[in-house]
Design goal:
heterodimer; A: about 220 residues; mainly alpha; Cytochrome Bc1 Complex, Chain D, domain 2; 2 domains; 11 helices; B: about 500 residues; Cytochrome C Oxidase, Chain A; two-stranded antiparallel ribbon; 17 helices; 2 strands; globular; binds protoporphyrin IX containing FE
């Protein structure tokens, strides 16, 4: 049979395809039958947090940080309760990471504060002298892309029925209104808690610095 | 048709891909050395403002070495080996010649856009699938065109039976196509929000654990079908050609090929051990990873035994050295991978530098060595010139071998140290080390790794110089060498 296949490339290719696709069929598909179920009380990310998640992706914190606490005592002692599937139900994409050059961040919101983050993101060595984490000073002046984050919220609400309120709806006008009423006040609270006047001023002028969005996201990781 | 003497092959496309192999090799590995140095000396993070941090550069490193350097090498060999074992020349078909050039052109466009977007931080954030949806579409297009060229050559072939290498090129094409499509299913946000925000932004079709499952189904198999399958295609052609020996066993190659195809996909679960995916999948990933030793070693042993009775060539021909060491490293990393997939070992190894060590003994020792050997075997034949310098090739071999050894041994120690320290407890069961202790302790190993990487990079420059001189100034050859590549 193999000799025959080697003379008939079409059937050879079909054979290869079937053999490799088979595993996916059995392994990956069944899991999709059970839709990701959020654990009880899990809220979707706020738009500000989504914008923070975008900063996390853009500056690629995943290169050094995981968000997956494994069920070992050494890990739960260090980071808290082990991670559960339902906690990730709104994570598109998942951000588990594969390398822990820095500590896991899945519950960092439980034991760090916004002003700690403010100092740490500005210059990690000022907080942890031996740290090898880069300083992210540009995040203090770059403006977060709230509109894209809002677009993401609208999209997941529409396509995946993520439970957002009725005020999340398409269109520029809806976004501007939402920004003024919801995003900026939330950002102002974070900026104040970060105890840096420059950040507060920027938010008051209607621009949210990347680091404020990022810290909103980090605070959410609990 | 038996004689291929009459057939004139079209190497123009092979040359293009060979040049990009060299260029991407230099760029990708220079970034590798830079990021390795940043972990040892963090001040190096601030050379290029926000674009120069470790975190921005790391995906550039992985994407440039994988999709730049490795894929270029694979495609150069695909057009070279394809024409020769199928006994068909691209000169015979204007259409296929056009497709091959279009393939190259699209590939260059994607590569340029990839570098720019990643530097800007535009990313879907999935490892080895960072590119955003507009680029994904271009990738698919490039892939389809490459497939037309591949299957076009097969369609026109004179040699009816497909040589072993062709099996692997076909599998490479099909598997990557299937996996890439599934993993990159994304919803562009611009179109669903009434035109808000960045037009290139998207959200993943899958969430959380499901997303992880699809991602590692892809991530693992990107390794399998880019770093393994087409590289085996290359060694099955170039080792017998360079040594003048017949492949040791046809049966063994058959067994290893179909074994590999069947087993590989199942092993993706080993990236998700102790995570929140269902337990049975983790166990499957673990078990199949161990089974994977069989087909992997099958190919490697088949290659080593091909040299039976001709081991003296190992001392005489640096290209044979590269290829034999490549098979050996292939055996090493396909033994190491399964060990790391055992649940209890994975508990220590996962998230540590041991994984990085594993990746690089594979890619530096196996993939890149095989690519260097293939390019240097092809060079005299496509440029019709002698290899510029044998001693340079020898020197490259040794300096890079030392580089690889320093790289993986330092990372093994670093990884296991780190893994053990994370879990160390005192007699009352309290954690002994704070996290930063487990970082500071790695400094010497990070320094050694950066040094090993630098040695390897110096080897890449030697290779580039040797290649450049061969192409431009090597002694002209009257006729094509049969087996051993002529070198000065
Ligand atoms: C001069 C040679 C090289 C050096 C110094 C180097 C260095 C590095 C460094 C420092 C990292 C990040 C490790 C970390 O996060 O701790 C990395 C990751 C990686 N490199 Fe390289 N690299 C080199 C060559 C290559 C080549 C030739 C390839 C492939 C063809 C490659 C593939 C990868 C991959 C796939 C990763 C990601 C590993 C993971 O996430 O598990 N590297 N490299």
């Amino acid at each position: 049979m193999f000799h025959w296949l080697e003379k008939h490339p079409f059937f050879f290719a079909v054979g290869v395809f079937v053999v490799i696709a088979y595993a996916g069929l059995i392994e990956v598909l069944p899991n999709f039958m059970e839709k990701a179920r959020p654990i009880k009380g899990l809220k979707p990310y706020t738009v500000l947090e989504l914008a923070g998640k975008e900063v996390y992706k853009k500056d690629n914190c995943i290169a050094c940080h995981s968000q997956l606490i494994r069920p070992f005592k050494a890990e739960t002692d260090r980071y808290g309760q082990y991670s559960m599937s339902g906690e990730y139900a709104y994570d598109r994409p998942f951000l588990w990471g594969s390398k822990r050059t820095g500590p896991d961040l899945h519950r960092v919101g439980r034991y760090r504060t916004p002003d700690w983050h403010a100092n740490h993101m500005w210059n990690p060595k000022s907080v942890v002298p031996d740290s090898i984490m880069p300083a992210y000073k540009h995040q203090f002046t770059n403006v977060a892309d709230l509109e894209t984050a809002y677009a993401e919220a609208v999209t997941v609400k529409k396509v995946f029925n993520t439970p957002y309120g009725d005020d999340i709806k398409p269109g520029k006008a809806a976004f501007e209104k939402y920004k003024k009423e919801k995003i900026l006040p939330e950002a102002l609270k974070i900026a104040k808690a970060m105890k840096r006047d420059d950040l507060v001023k920027m938010v008051e002028s209607g621009k949210v610095p990347e680091v404020v969005a990022l810290v909103a996201y980090l605070e959410r990781l609990k | 048709m038996q004689s291929n003497a009459a057939l004139e092959y079209d190497y123009s496309i092979v040359k293009l891909f060979m040049w990009t192999t060299v260029i991407f090799g230099i760029v990708g590995m220079a970034i590798g050395v830079l990021i390795a140095s940043q972990l040892a000396f963090p001040d190096l993070n601030y050379l290029m403002g926000e674009y120069g941090t470790f975190s921005r550069l790391r995906p550039l490193h992985t994407n440039v070495v994988i999709y730049g350097f490795t894929l270029s090498g694979i495609w150069a060999s695909m057009y070279y080996v394809g024409q020769r074992v199928l006994k068909v020349s691209l000169l015979e078909s204007g259409f296929l010649r056009f497709m091959s050039k279009l393939h190259f052109l699209l590939y260059m466009i994607v590569a340029a856009l990839m570098v720019v977007t990643l530097a800007l931080g535009i990313t879907a954030s999935k490892e080895y699938a960072q590119m955003e949806w507009p680029l994904d579409i271009l990738v698919v297009l490039t892939w389809v065109v490459s497939g037309i060229a591949l299957f076009g050559m097969i369609g026109l072939r004179r040699e009816k039976t497909l040589y072993i290498s062709m099996w692997y090129y076909i599998a490479f094409f099909l598997a990557v196509a299937m996996l890439y499509l599934f993993n990159n299913m994304e919803v562009p946000t611009y179109f669903f929000s009434g035109g808000l925000g960045a037009w290139y932004h998207s959200v993943s079709m899958y969430a959380g654990t499901n997303d992880a499952l699809v991602q590692w189904w892809w991530g693992h198999n990107a390794v399998a079908f880019v770093f393994t399958v087409p590289i085996i295609a290359m060694i099955y052609y170039f080792l017998p050609k360079e040594s003048g020996q017949a492949v040791y066993s046809y049966k063994l190659s058959l067994l290893s090929f179909w074994g590999l195809m069947f087993v590989y996909l199942w092993a993706g679960g080993h990236h998700l051990i102790w995570s929140t995916v269902p337990d049975w999948m983790q166990t499957m990933g673990s078990v199949f990873s161990v089974v994977l030793i069989l087909p992997s070693w099958g190919s490697a042993i088949n290659m080593l035994l091909t040299m039976k009775g001709e081991w003296n060539q190992l001392t005489e021909n640096p290209l044979i050295k590269f290829m034999i060491l490549a098979s050996t490293f292939y055996m090493l990393s396909t033994l190491e991978g399964p060990i790391q997939s055992v649940k209890s070992v994975n508990a220590i190894a996962h998230f540590t530098d041991w994984i990085i060590g594993h990746v690089h003994d594979g890619v530096l020792g196996w993939v890149a060595f095989m690519v260097f050997a293939a390019v240097m075997h092809m060079a005299p034949r496509v440029f019709k010139r002698e290899i510029y310098s044998k001693s340079l090739l020898e020197a490259q071999f040794w300096i890079q071998t030392i580089g690889v050894v320093l790289y993986f041994s330092s990372m093994w120690i670093a990884g296991i140290t780190q893994g053990m320290m994370w879990r160390a407890v005192d007699e009352y069961g309290n954690l002994v080390y704070s996290f930063i202790d487990t970082v500071s302790v790695l400094h010497p190993y990070y320094t050694i790794r950066a040094f090993g990487g630098l040695l390897y990079l110096i080897g890449v420059f030697m290779f580039a110089w040797n290649f450049f001189k061969t192409a431009t100034a090597g002694r002209r050859l009257e006729q094509e060498p049969r087996y051993k590549s002529p070198m000065a």
